[in-house]
């Protein structure tokens, strides 16, 4: 399974595998920030980000 | 973790600039409408409180705290308007605006992280223009798709239980992201069909709705708010996509 297939545009399967973990971490961190600001049920978080929740049309109240 | 560090730099640069930009836009577009709607929300709360305090005012001399506590209890009984009594909230004015700025910056960085992650997952070169296209797709997936079922709401609007709406929102946004990816990157007609299906299915399932939802604010304000949110969001996503594409090219993958 060590053969590296190269796609037409120069991407390789090996580079996909090496990207997976850092990309997953970055995406998880992004989702964590958005959930913290927009979706947390902690009342203080809701009140602090209240106007931004409404402005981004996140479900609120 | 070299790639992780680069992704964070690119997302922080794009997200902080787009977040700072949109927080200025929010101050002139959505926040004034929210404040206007809150006048109606508080008037409706006060009316409900007066109606219920007429039976209880004789029991205490502290009229203001009675009014406040009965307002909270009457609101708690209204679906979609649960406010916790005595919870911290920022003071109106500077403190409230400061938290709005902070929340806008964090949201900007959060969405930018999702965008640059998607760029890296996709691979290939990026620039400001391809970033703009991704940003517009983000607008479709994160604003238009969930907004069709759960339109932007001003404070004082009754709605279905919060958790049910949040679950539908996440489900709809995820399906829209998957659907757009199938449409744009699927190489066979079947992928396009699957993409369309993913875009449509959440709306067949339908967003959680109340049978008789009412808003304290007049219809002109709720309509004005929807227009303000959608236009602001379009501008935000266009800026975020453009900046993310630019900083991705600069920090992560030089062309």
Automatic annotation (TrEMBL), chain A:
Name of the molecule in the record: Cobalt transporter
Q: Indicate whether Transmembrane helix appears among the record's keywords.
A: yes
Q: Does the keyword Transmembrane helix apply?
A: yes
Q: Which InterPro entries match?
A: CbtB_put
Q: Which UniProt keywords apply?
A: Membrane, Transmembrane, Transmembrane helix
Lineage, highest ranks first? Bacteria, Pseudomonadati, Pseudomonadota, Alphaproteobacteria, Rhodospirillales
Q: Which Pfam families would you find in this protein's record?
A: CbtB (PF09489)
Superkingdom, natural source = Bacteria
Q: Where are the transmembrane segments?
A: 20-39
Automatic annotation (TrEMBL), chain B:
Regions crossing the membrane? 98-120, 132-151, 166-185, 190-210, 225-248
Asked if the record carries the keyword Cell membrane, the reply is no
Mind listing the UniProt keywords for this protein, alphabetically? Membrane, Transmembrane, Transmembrane helix
Cross-referenced InterPro entries: CbtA_put (IPR012666)
Region Disordered, annotated ranges: 51-87
In this chain, composition skew of type Low complexity spans 51-77
Q: Which domain of life is it from?
A: Bacteria
- Protein name per Swiss-Prot or TrEMBL: Cobalt transporter subunit CbtA
């Amino acid at each position: 399974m060590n053969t590296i297939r190269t796609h037409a545009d120069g991407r390789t399967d090996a580079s996909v595998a090496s990207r997976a973990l850092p990309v997953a971490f970055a995406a998880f961190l992004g989702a964590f920030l958005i959930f913290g600001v927009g979706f947390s049920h902690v009342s203080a978080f809701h009140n602090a980000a209240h106007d931004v929740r409404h402005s981004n049309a996140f479900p609120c109240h | 973790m070299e790639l992780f560090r680069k992704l964070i730099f690119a997302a922080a640069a794009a997200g902080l600039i787009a977040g700072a930009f949109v927080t200025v836009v929010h101050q002139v577009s959505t926040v004034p409408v929210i404040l206007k709607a809150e006048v109606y929300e508080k008037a409706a709360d006060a009316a409900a409180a007066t109606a219920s305090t007429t039976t209880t005012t004789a029991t205490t001399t502290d009229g203001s705290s009675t009014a406040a506590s009965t307002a909270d209890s009457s609101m708690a009984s209204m679906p979609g308007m649960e406010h916790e009594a005595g919870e911290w909230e920022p003071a109106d004015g500077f403190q409230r605006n400061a938290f709005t700025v902070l929340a806008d910056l964090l949201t900007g960085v959060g969405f930018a992280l999702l965008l640059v992650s998607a760029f890296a997952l996709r691979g290939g070169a990026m620039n400001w223009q391809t970033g703009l296209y991704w940003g517009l797709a983000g607008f479709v997936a994160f604003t238009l798709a969930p907004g069709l079922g759960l339109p932007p709401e001003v404070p004082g609007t009754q709605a279905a239980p919060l958790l049910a709406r949040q679950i539908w929102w996440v489900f709809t946004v995820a399906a829209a992201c998957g659907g757009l990816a199938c449409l744009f990157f699927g190489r066979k007609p079947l992928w396009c069909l699957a993409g369309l299906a993913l875009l449509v299915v959440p709306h067949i399932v339908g967003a959680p709705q109340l049978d008789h939802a009412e808003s304290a604010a007049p219809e002109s304000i709720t309509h004005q708010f929807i227009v303000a949110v959608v236009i602001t969001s379009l501008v935000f996503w266009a800026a975020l996509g453009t900046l993310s594409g630019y900083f991705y090219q600069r920090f992560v993958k030089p062309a």
